[in-house]
Amino acid sequence: MVxxxxxxxxxxxxxxxxxxxxxxxxxxxLLSTSQVHQAKVIATYVSYGLEPSTxxxxxxxxxxxxxxxxxxxSGDSLEWVRWNGDVNMLEKRGNLxxxxxxxxKDLATIDVIxxxxxxxxxxxxxxxxxxxxxxxxxxxxxxxxxxxxxxGEVGEEQLPxxxxxxxxxxxxxxxxxxxF
Length: 180
Prior knowledge:
Elements: H1 4-21, H2 34-38, E1 41-43, H3 55-63, E2 67-74, E3 77-83, E4 90-93, E5 96-99, E6 112-116, E7 119-120, E8 126-127, H4 133-140, E9 144-148, E10 170-172, E11 177-179
Parallel strand pairs: 1-2, 1-6, 6-9, 9-10
Antiparallel strand pairs: 2-3, 4-5, 7-8, 10-11
């Protein structure tokens, strides 16, 4: 069993490295992947701080007539709300921008889910911010899962894992895509 403090220590170390790796480059190459191109409904997020930027990607998804869902924390889980690109429909919750509106009920319609990560290992396991929200969500959404990271945040070293951790199907940097 993985000790929580081991993940917390690794998370802090990777956050410090992220300051040196940060780039604001868009992830528009994802639009040409067959999974994203064919998708009708894409769950994504609004990035903040040193996270890989989702701003341009989200705009292009909307411009290509995708239905875009954004997450909102509800208790200990995420719910997903349809978003039309209007920043006035977002409200600040700590560091996050979350959508206002009615949560979608049928998450089986989600074709692709874009998730944040601090690091992704050789097997597609990701290290997130530590709340477990995405792992709980990924366990119940039968969509193609792709994590966004900066260059240098995909590696061969295996991350510590817990029984609730869910692997992604792919990881993308602003220039590359790796499918597991």
